[in-house]
Amino acid sequence: QVQLVESGGGLVQPGGSLRLSCVFYGREFSIYNIYWYRQPPGKQREWVGYISAGGGTDYADSVKGRFTISRDHIGNTVYLQMSSLHSEDTAVYFCSAVNVRSRSEEWGQGTQVTVSS
């Protein structure tokens, strides 16, 4: 069974940076694609980006050039490094893991990011 735990959220000023972590508990981390989503207040959840099992990445246009996703296979952790944050980045951030073989998907509980002065 897979469990995901996000952390690293908080309050940050506009223009600041923050790094979120998504720790993967379970087996075969290396065969999971890991996705980041966010849900701004009062809006629908939206895709932020992902890192494939092989390390390839892709990002939503709204965060491209500001956000970077990486994965640590020793610590079974995926990071979302966010920089040049602005108020529109305020949201609850979630990670999800998709098994590339079975296509099963698991979600974390989310972590709140608030960008405000």
Task: Report the β-strand fraction as a percent range.
Answer: over 45%
Oligomer: single chain
- Rg over C-alpha atoms, rounded to the nearest angstrom: 14 Å
Summed over residues and divided by their number, the pLDDT gives a mean of 97
Write the layout of secondary structure elements.
Blueprint: E1 3-7, E2 10-12, E3 18-25, E4 32-39, E5 46-51, E6 57-59, E7 67-72, E8 77-82, E9 91-99, E10 105-107, E11 111-115
Parallel strand pairs: 2-11
Antiparallel strand pairs: 1-3, 3-8, 4-5, 4-9, 5-6, 7-8, 9-10, 9-11
Summarize the entry for a quick read:
The protein has no helices and eleven strands. It is mostly beta strands and 117 residues long.
Tell me what the structure shows:
Helices cover 0% and strands 53% of the residues. It has 117 residues and is an all-beta fold. A hairpin with a 5-residue loop joins strand 5 (46-51) and strand 6 (57-59). The model has no long low-confidence stretch (mean pLDDT 97).
Descriptive labels:
globular, 117 residues, mainly beta, single chain, four-stranded antiparallel β-sheet
